[in-house]
Amino acid sequence: MSISMVGIDYNKASVDIRAQFSFTKKNAAAAMEKLKEAPGILGCIILSTCNRMEIWASTQEEWEGSLFDFLCEEKGKNPEEFRRYFVERKEEEAIEHLFYLTSGLKSQILAEDQIIAQVKDALSMARDVYCTDNVLEVLFRMAVTAAKRVKTEVVFSRGNSSVIHQAIQKLRETGYSLDGSNCMVIGNGEMGKVAALALAEAGAHVTVTVRQYRSGIVSIPKGCDRINYGERMEFFPSCDLIVSATASPNFTLTKELVQQAATGKKQQILIDLAVPRDIEPSVNEIEGITLYDIDSFKIDTNSLELQESMQKAAAILREQMEDFYCWYDGRSLIPRIQDIQAEAVQDLNLRILKILRKTPMEDEDRENLLNAIDVAAGKVVSKMMFGLRDTLEKEEFINCVEGLEKLYGA
Length: 410
Known about the structure:
InterPro entries: 4pyrrol_synth_GluRdtase (IPR000343), 4pyrrol_synth_GluRdtase_dimer (IPR015896), 4pyrrol_synth_GluRdtase_N (IPR015895), GluRdtase_N_sf (IPR036343), NAD(P)-bd_dom_sf (IPR036291), Shikm_DH/Glu-tRNA_Rdtase (IPR006151). Keywords: NADP, Oxidoreductase, Porphyrin biosynthesis. This protein has 15 helices and 10 strands. The protein is an alpha/beta fold and 410 residues long. The protein folds into 3 domains: 2-153, Beta Polymerase, domain 2, CATH 3.30.460.30; 160-292, Rossmann fold; 335-409. The strands form 2 sheets. Strands 7-6-5-8-9-10 form a 6-stranded parallel β-sheet, covered by helices on one side. It has a 4-stranded antiparallel β-sheet with strand order 2-3-1-4, sandwiched between helices. Helix 9 links the parallel strand 5 and strand 6. Helix 5 (91-102) crosses helix 7, helix 6 packs antiparallel against helix 7 and helix 13 runs parallel beside helix 15. The longest helix has 29 residues, at 363-391. The radius of gyration is 28 Å and the shape is elongated. The relative contact order is 0.09.
């Protein structure tokens, strides 16, 4: 069995390139189901966020396929045109990447909050469509556990943030104040709610757009107003800053719409947090409009304080990865351990049965007692075997297993 992944992220590809390989939840589910049917694929997971898209797979050792070729075929792209934007990793390199990624140490905003939930959601979605397997299940769960430890034990002075928090900080550094400003957030999904709350906390008056057909059942962040999505352009001229963060496949703000709504007399800031883009890039050509996209806000990771935090996080991740490697390296022994367990229980049964036959009791009671002994003996043998696995060196434990196999004729 082998672990492989292929990915594209903000380090190597612009938002427009990444958008061509992003997946909606529905499309990701369909793609995973298709990949899972391919010969040699034992399990797969797709992680698709604003900053990255990754396909993970556990495969048979002899598998010679290509996740990159599968992706390009799925998206209708020429592999040679886009190969330079992708990274492929296997085994230890892939495992280390996932642990660092889930901890936010590869995020555009260092140690940001959202990536842990995104990794958990990717695993959950793969699980829902029966596409994950034992190896990916354990790998992703242990990466999340490691990330939570990093989150708890390591302080990143500029971490615990998101793109919108970084955007607000960058604007402040240019002298722009949100206090008392009029802001509109287009989109009331997870990212839209984070943006609305961050802007409100910065002192802005925030209005959130809500799709009309959902307006009766959705909630908006506390302290924010709401308007229907169709009213956004009427509200646009009164705004100092507009954030768009939807999952729409179409532009929420086009150049034509903004030209009609903008007065040109008022300086307005537009921030596009979506992948694919929500705001047509040419909007930036309109007088009085300044447009930022999700790649506009990056953090300096070269400070001494951040480097020390990174070293602490790395030590935690090495420890957590070692736990995974112990499980991963020992998983092939589990069927052999189970066989030894079954043989040992059967051996005990034969010895106990001789005694029970001479003991006066009802047949039903005898059968119930044997079943109880089976369960108890199985637990004892299992505890002993896995206890040895956790305390002995790998080679010593393998020797123990081989010796017990010879003893029980397994």
